[in-house]
Design goal:
By secondary structure, the chain is of the alpha+beta class. The protein has one domain: Amidase signature (AS) domain (Amidase signature (AS) enzymes, Alpha-Beta Complex). The strands form 4 sheets. An 11-stranded mixed β-sheet has the order 1-3-2-8-10-9-16-17-13-11-12, with helices on both faces. A two-stranded antiparallel ribbon has the order 4-5.
Length: about 475
């Protein structure tokens, strides 16, 4: 029983359902693993074991015959620290909210708990989830379990690191410019940025399609398991989908070889991509070709994706931070101040032109997927970097613009609104993880899970998580 942390989420839920193991035993196993590993990586920053055990006992006492097929039967999970869990500290990585206790749970947490998940802790994130390196002045930095000198990326870096170290079986993530995909890439775990509205959420800007909630796990099947428990309709989210949705776990259990795949090492827009990252993407394409898949080096026209993203993001920062910054400017990190001030300088014409440009990008990408089943590209332009470096200012000796320059491969896909899976793609010569993005057609999550399961088997990336931090 001391090795329960090694189980996949699918295996753990199977044992829970058969009552061969109890939720309380899994909480104890997770707590022991957290105690052993968290001092080395700082992934989980607030723990709520008493609340978790109380919830677990309620689940154990239920003997309903009408439990939904996506019920998790008391599986412990982690929730990102920008997402409210009732009665639990939620800081968003900001000194402004350092002592804040959430009065109620966020919609995504309500949904997961209703479907049998048990929250045992909050995972670290950058201040207000802004940036691709998980550090803040409340809890410090989260370190990468593959090399504790390196970043786990962000903003869902605590979730990815906790999964990689075996602290939890599933974890929530949010993705704006790559915040599920880049940590998954850097920690050799798996995560899905779903289409907008697939996972209900509440937002100040309810029709904003850039920021989404999504599942994070160690492999494709576990990611599908969590997505089944998250996806659906909610009256507070006008983008949420009524359904009925397919069973994503069933899709992941039926690996499907795609007929025609496009791949690109730079999407035609990255100013620089590390050589080992390019090689990993090309190697995946070559494996597909050897397995009989038609493979073309191609990508949609994303030439204006970065400009469009940054403009739309600027408006989001105004909504999230402008008013609060008037009172607490001294408590904000400089990157958020810069992004918010950029947003405040935007004109109505800038915003309308960006919204029109996104519409055109979405339509061009949809047309692209009339030819291709899948688009493969790197998740990040460079491997994990020193955690003390705020962000990479250059890749392969090429200077980048702004602190988002190294994230262009993820933020460009965000603008398309297509579902995209982050999948382990290999390792550098020094043993650092490299991740791939598997981009599917619009609203094509079920198909994407089937193809991702096939890709996972084809690539056979080893070693696999969970691992002991090193």
């Amino acid at each position: 029983m001391s090795e329960l942390w090694r189980l996949s989420a699918v295996e753990a839920v199977r044992l829970l359902k058969r009552r061969e193991v109890s939720p309380l035993e899994l909480i104890d196993a997770a707590a022991a693993r957290i105690e052993a590993t968290n001092p080395k990586i700082n992934a989980l920053v607030t723990l709520c074991y008493d609340r978790a055990r109380e919830h677990a006992r309620r689940i154990q006492s239920e003997r309903r015959a009408d439990l939904p097929p996506n019920f998790l039967h008391g599986l412990p999970i982690a929730v990102k620290d920008g997402t409210d869990v009732a009665g639990v500290r939620c800081t968003s990585g900001s000194r402004i909210y350092a002592d804040r206790i959430a009065p109620a749970s966020d919609v995504v947490v309500q949904r997961l708990e209703a479907n049998g998940a048990v929250v045992i802790g909050k995972s670290n994130l950058p201040e207000f989830a802004a940036g691709g390196n998980t550090f803040n002045e409340v809890f410090g930095a989260t370190l990468n379990p593959w090399d504790v000198r390196m970043t786990s990326s962000g903003s869902s870096g605590g979730s990815a690191a906790a999964l990689a170290a075996g602290q939890v079986w599933l974890a929530t993530g949010g993705d704006f410019g790559g915040s599920i995909r880049t940590p998954s890439s850097y920690c050799s775990t798996t995560g899905l940025r779903p289409s907008p509205g697939m996972v209900p959420r509440t937002s100040r800007q309810p029709f904003n399609p850039l920021s989404v909630e999504g599942p994070m796990a160690r492999d494709v099947s576990d990611t599908a398991l969590m997505f089944d428990a998250e996806a659906g309709w909610h009256p507070l989210d006008p983008l949420s989908q009524v359904g009925p949705h397919p069973r994503f776990s069933e899709a992941a259990a039926r690996p499907r070889k795609p007929a025609r795949v496009a791949f690109s090492t730079d999407l035609g827009i990255a100013r620089a991509v590390d050589g080992e990252v390019r090689a990993a993407c090309r190697a995946a394409a070559e494996k597909l070709a050897r397995d009989g898949v038609a493979v073309d080096e191609a990508h949609p026209d994303l030439a204006d994706a970065e400009k469009t993203f940054l403009t739309l993001r600027g408006a989001v920062f105004v909504a999230r931070h402008a008013q609060l910054m008037e009172k607490y400017r001294n408590l904000y990190k400089p990157e958020i101040i810069d992004n918010t001030e950029f947003g405040l300088k935007l004109t109505p014409r800038d915003m309308v032109e960006a919204e029109i440009a996104q519409g055109e990008l979405i339509r061009r990408t949809a047309k692209f997927f009339e030819t291709y089943d899948l688009l493969i590209c790197p998740a990040v332009s460079c491997p994990p970097f020193d955690v003390h470096q705020r962000y990479p200012a250059a890749v392969d000796g090429v200077r980048l613009e702004g602190y988002m320059g190294w994230l262009v491969l993820t933020l460009a896909i965000t603008v398309t609104s297509c579902p995209v899976m982050a999948l382990p793609g290999g390792f550098t010569a020094s043993g650092l993880p490299i991740g791939l993005q598997l981009v599917g057609p619009p609203r094509g999550e079920a198909k994407l899970f089937s193809v991702a399961a096939y890709m996972e088997s084809l690539l056979k990336v080893t070693p696999r998580t969970p691992i002991d931090p090193r």
